Amino acid sequence: MDKVFVIIVTYNGKQWYDSCFGSLRLSEIPVNTIVFDNASSDDTVSYIKQYFPEVIIFESNVNLGFGQGNNKGIRYALDNSADYVFLLNQDAWIEPDTIAELVRIQKENPAYGILSPMNLTAEKNSILNGFIEYIVDYNNTDCKLVDDLYFNRLRDIYDIKSVNAASWLLSRGILETVGGFDPIFFHYGEDDNYLQRSHYHDFKVGICPKVSLVHDAEVSNQFNQNIREGANKRNLLLICADINNNLTPDRYIKFLVIKLLKKTFTFKFKTLNQYYTELKYLLSVRNEINYSRKTNIVKGENWL
After folding, report:
1. CA distance 38 to 69
2. CA distance 220 to 239
3. CA-CA distances (angstroms) from residue 10 to 70, 148, 298?
C-alpha cells in the first residue's frame, strides 16, 4: 500500500483542528500526519497532543513561514519512505475519499507531479471564491474543463498552470527532482515559484474536478491588507526568480535604471518613486535571487 504523509503547518488555528485532523482519521487511505507548528501563541500544540495523539509534531520557537514549515515535514516524510506527500492548510478538511482518489489519479497519470482537488466553502454549497478564479481563467486552466462540465462529461484531471498550495498532492518523484519550497519566499509566492520550477523540470500540474475538500479561507481585512502591502516585492521575486525566463536580477535592474533615467530626463516624475523602490529592493536581494536560480535549475532535493 502507498505510504502517504499529510503535512500541516499550524499557527494559532485551533478553531479548525477538530474538523481538519478529525477528517484525516476518516480517510479511506491511511495517512501519517505531520504538524510543523510555527511558534503558535495559543495552545495549538498541547491541544493537538491531547486530542490527536497520533500526529507527529515539530515545534518551532520562531515562525519560519509556510514554505519552510512544509519543508521540514517533507524532509521527514521522504526520510520515512513516503510515496506521496499531501500538503493541507490548517483551515481545510478532507472528504473520506479525497486523498485516495488523488493518489489513484496520479498513479494513472504519472506525468503529473502536483494534483489539487476542488476547494469548497465551509457550507459545501459553492466553490471557494479565490479558488474559482483559477478555473475561469482560460490562460491558466484547460478550457475544456468548463465545456465538459456543461455537457456532463468531466474527466478525472485537467491541466492547470497555477493553483494555490492549500491542498496539494505531491509525488515522491517531483520532490526528489524539484525539491522543497525556496526559502527566498517567507509567506506567499512560494507556491507560485514552486509551480514555475515544476514546469521547468517537465512536471505537469493538474486539477481534479471530481475530488473535493473544504477550505474555510475567510480572513480579516487586516490580513488582506498585509498581503497587498507585500505584493510588489513578491511579484519582483517571482519574475526574477523564474528559471523559465532569462530575466535575471541584473537585467531587471538595468531595465529599472533606464526607466529612471528616461523619466527624469523627460520630467515625468510621477512614477519615479515606484521605480526607485523596486530598484533599491532588487539590489538588496540580487545575490539571493541569483543563488536561487542557480540552485533551482539543478535537479535534486533542493531546500529540504
Report:
1. 7
2. 28
3. 10, 37, 30
Q: How big is the chain, counted in residues?
A: 304
Long-range contacts (CB closer than 8 Å, 24 or more residues apart) made by 221-225: none
Tell me which of 183, 217, 251 is where a domain ends.
Answer: 217
* Widest pairwise Cα distance in the chain: 68
Of the residues 158, 187, 217, which one is the last residue of a structural domain? Answer: 217
Domain that holds residue 55: 4-217
Q: What is the pTM of this model?
A: 0.94
Which residue, 221, 219, 241, is CA-closest to 303? Answer: 241
- The mean pLDDT value for 147-174 works out to 96
Same domain for 185 and 250? no
Cell of 268: 515625468
Shortest CA distance to 175 belongs to which of 8, 300, 9? 300
Coil, helix or strand for 220? coil
Q: Could you say which DSSP state residue 173 is in?
A: H
Distance CA 192, CA 163 (A): 8
CB 214 within 8 A of CB 121: yes
Write the pLDDT tens digit of every residue in 184-213.
Answer: 998 889 999 999 999 999 999 999 999 999
CA-based torsion, 52, 56, 59, 65: positive or negative: negative
Supply 132's cell numbers. 474559482
Rounded distance, CA 255 to CA 170, Å? Answer: 37
Take residue 140 and report the three cell numbers written for it: 491558466
